[in-house]
Write a structure and sequence with these properties.
The complex is a heterodimer of chains A (112) and B (113). Chain A is an all-beta fold and 112 residues long. Chain A starts with a strand and ends with a strand. In chain B, strands 2, 4, 5, 6, 9, 10 and 11 form a seven-stranded mixed β-sheet that branches. In chain B, strands 1-3-8-7 form a four-stranded antiparallel β-sheet, with no helix packed on it. With 113 residues, chain B is mainly β. In chain B, a hairpin with a 5-residue loop joins strand 7 and strand 8. Chain B is built from no helices and eleven strands. Chain B starts with a strand and ends with a strand. Classes of the chains: A mainly beta (112), B mainly beta (113). Chains A and B meet through strand 4, strand 5, strand 9 and strand 10 of A and strand 5, strand 9 and strand 10 of B.
């Protein structure tokens, strides 16, 4: 079963607008990561936030983590048509045999 | 450095056949994970290998198996293929452990007819 659940499932915005995507999870985590996937291709890592961090920035990306609510959000500012893709959150649980568990993803469409 | 390489890119098989997919991780990466991606189920974890040992396994039937060689290259095998095995199979590598990001290959698109 999925650990992370993204919300919304699909998002359509105009170029230049900000896109906010949310992820909720169920169990304790070691870290939370966001990935992007263009149609039919592999995933590309965007950003990683550890469980003891609250906010992280990378270029136009801002991710927050609230461990008390078991949720994270990814903000893409000043979106571009090239940001059109699917976005996934992935949670890394604690323990020696930790694996990354992915949500079902959010489809973002940025209209030029 | 070269990225994660998966071969073949596309495969068409019929029910009952078996298939072997190959993954070459980034040089120096000792961990290789496999995921199955379908429109309905999203990304499902199959297994992870580290230094030739299976370190973790998802909830897939025994028809799905894998191995890792001493050069960190990995293969996964699916026997007695079913229609529901049609999916994009993704391989990902990282240097060591769970606190790191994954580097993905472009995947093998398997169609079972």
């Amino acid at each position: 079963s999925q650990q992370g659940e993204e919300d919304p499932q699909a998002l359509s915005i105009q170029e230049g607008e900000n896109a906010t995507m949310n992820c909720s999870y169920k169990t304790s985590i070691n870290n939370l990561q966001w990935y992007r996937q263009n149609s039919g291709r592999g995933l590309v890592h965007l950003i990683l936030i550890r469980s003891n961090e609250r906010e992280k920035h990378s270029g136009r990306l801002r991710v927050t983590l609230d461990t008390s609510k078991k949720s994270s959000s990814l903000l893409i500012t000043a979106s571009r048509a090239a940001d059109t893709a699917s976005y996934f959150c992935a949670t890394g649980n604690t323990g020696a045999n930790s694996k990354l568990t992915f949500g079902k993803g959010i489809t973002l469409s940025v209209r030029p | 450095k070269a990225g994660v390489t998966q071969t073949p890119r596309y495969l068409i098989k019929t029910r009952g056949q078996q298939v072997t997919l190959s993954c070459s991780p980034i040089s120096g990466h000792r961990s290789v994970s496999w995921y199955q991606q379908t429109p309905g189920q999203g990304l499902q974890f199959l297994f992870e290998y580290f230094s030739e040992t299976q370190r973790n396994k998802g909830n897939f039937p025994g028809r799905f198996s894998g191995r890792q060689f001493s050069n960190s290259r990995s293969e996964m095998n699916v026997s007695t293929l079913e229609l529901g095995d049609s999916a994009l199979y993704l391989c990902a590598s990282r240097t060591r452990g769970p606190d790191e990001k994954l580097f993905f290959g472009s995947g093998t698109q398997l169609s079972v007819l």
